[in-house]
Amino acid sequence: YYIAIRLEGQSIEELAQWRFYRSLVLIFFIDLIILIGVWIIYRNIRAEMRLTQMKADFVSNVSHELRTPLSLIRMFAETLELNRVQTENKKKEYYQIIGQESERLTHLINNILDFSKIEAGKKQYHKEIFDLNEVIKDVLRLYAFHLQNKGFHLQNEINPAEKLKINADKDAITEAIINLIDNAVKYSNEDKRLRIKSGLFQDAVYFEVEDHGIGIGIDDQKKIFDKFYRVSTGLVHDVKGTGLGLSLIKYIMEMHNGRVSVESHLGKGSTFRLIFPKER
Length: 280
Description:
By secondary structure, the chain is an alpha+beta fold. The strands form 2 sheets. Strands 2-4-5-7-6 form a 5-stranded mixed β-sheet, covered by helices on one side. Strands 1-3 form a two-stranded antiparallel ribbon. It has a domain at 128-277: Heat Shock Protein 90, CATH 3.30.565.10. The termini are far apart. Helix 1 runs antiparallel to helix 2 (88-120) and helix 4 (170-186) runs antiparallel to helix 7 (245-255). Helix content is 56%, strand content 16%. Strand 4 and strand 5 form a beta hairpin.
């Protein structure tokens, strides 16, 4: 007979092997958590760097945008001050241009101020019932010299006899229309044709701007309404802009229970449309 001690359950070798595998699985999960953490930190740093670059581009582009109307105002003001204008009609024309460029400058500043208020959650709208076509006419009168100076042909399909009543903040809608026309001018190439149209669509009121410019790719169409976003392809990136216009338009339309849509093809142009609920 042999007398010996037998362990109850697993042997020492089996226990050691089990503990080894358990430690191996634990190490694997710890490594996996570390890798996920590193990836999240990398993604956040990359997003912050991209945002920092976008803000730097924004400051640079705003400086350029403000400089253009300021230069025109200064040039025409100096011409008038030096009495180089001979006729009263010409003087009146120069004064109108100064006024129009001052309005453009005000529009640019308002974009920045509106964005700041939106970010702080302090933007408020004061709605009233008005005719959308009247606002469009005022904007076109403001932009007449700018379009003419840039060599654009405007195809105006607005019916002044048609009353398009909407309940909205008039200043905000004016800003949205100006932003659309301004974008169409900026991103047009040699084909300097613009078409504007307004009317009724089902149970809604709409305003649209069509250009024959460089167009927007399908992927970029999903992002162009994000703040600071600018298309990175060469033709678009060479055009100065704040990157706020379309994001402000989207916000304005959402606050008025409306929406903004885009149809675009690279190399053929874009059509942006503002759609408002019809006031009954």
